[in-house]
Every structure is written in C-alpha cells, then in structure tokens.
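Follow-up to my post from last week.
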Amino acid sequence: GQQLNQSPQSMFIQEGEDVSMNCTSSSIFNTWLWYKQDPGEGPVLLIALYKAGELTSNGRLTAQFGITRKDSFLNISASIPSDVGIYFCAGQAQGAQKLVFGQGTRLTINP
Amino acid sequence: ETGVTQSPTHLIKTRGQQVTLRCSSQSGHNTVSWYQQALGQGPQFIFQYYREEENGRGNFPPRFSGLQFPNYSSELNVNALELDDSALYLCASSPGRTTNIQYFGAGTRLSVL
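User reply:
Got it. Predicted complex:
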C-alpha cells in the first residue's frame, strides 16, 4: 500500500536535546497530520496542518506544512522522557477519505 | 482518551477462520475508518463508513468487509484468515465525511496461527 517516506526511522538522543523529523511524498496533500503512538495504544493526534507554508505549535512541538505540499516537518524542543514513542506523519489528499501514513520514527531518550 | 473504544483488545485465530472486530465511535461522530497496522509499519487504510454506507476502500480483498450501525458503531469482518492478516487493527472516528481529523482507538491485536 501507499506510504509516505518518513525519516529518520529511529533516533537515540539525550534528554533535553531537540529533535527533528520529516516526511515526504511523491504526491500533493491538502492536510498533514502528526500522530504519536505508545506501545499498546492507538495513534494520538499531536498537530494538524491545513495550508502550505503553515507553521503550528503545540507546547514543545512545532510542525510545518511544506510549500510544495509534498512534505512536512516536526520538531520537538527540550525532549523529556515522556516523548519516547513512535511518531507518524499522515497526509490526506483533497476529497480523499483515507489518511496515508509514513513508516514512523521511533524516538528513544537516554536520561 | 479519544472516546473511541475497540473490542476485543487481543484475539488469536487459526488460518481459515473468520473474525469480527468491533468499534464504538466517539459521541457525535458519524464516520468510522478502519486501518491495518503490521508490525513496524504505519497504518494502512482498509475502508471507511459514513452513515451506514461504505464511503471509500483501500487495497484490501473482498474478504475484508464491514458494517456500520444506526448508532454509528462499526464492525470489521475478515473471512478465510491468512497468516499475513496478523496485525493491529485500528478504528478511527471523525465528525463528518469530509473532515480531516481522525481519532483512533487503542486497536485490536489479531494473531493468526
């Protein structure tokens, strides 16, 4: 099935460091979403982006909708232990019902 | 807590059997989407139901079928189970057919032996 290209696949960082991850697509999306999934849980929505160039923050998280509408970025500042988990990007094309997901970025934090 | 509940949480079946998974959507949401998440992968869209009608389908064979009830809860049925059907099955609800935001339940972990 279709998937977005998400990188990096995994990250090992020290507590307090900043984190950046990105997602690219070969096709245009009208909406970009970022989710976090903890073990044994479903994805939880972090940030939603609706407009090319849009920059949106949610606490220590900041995400951007790429100008070309084919990419998106997520940054986490001053990481803390509860940031550990798998982060997924998801895109939705205009008029489409489905979300197309990336493969996920697994974040591990060393205290 | 998204208000989307799924049952059962875990299920073990053998190849060739049939399975039914259930989902209760968040209050006020009339649209339910189902996704399959294989280990180490992102979720893949199976289909969506809007007001009891199928409203879009991903690249899954006909042995994957669904229902939505008048209270907007939903079922996913899989016939003739195959080993590759082992996955986490996620249900997501949204307040309208055209809305972008989908809220996920915790999923049902299906193991096919």
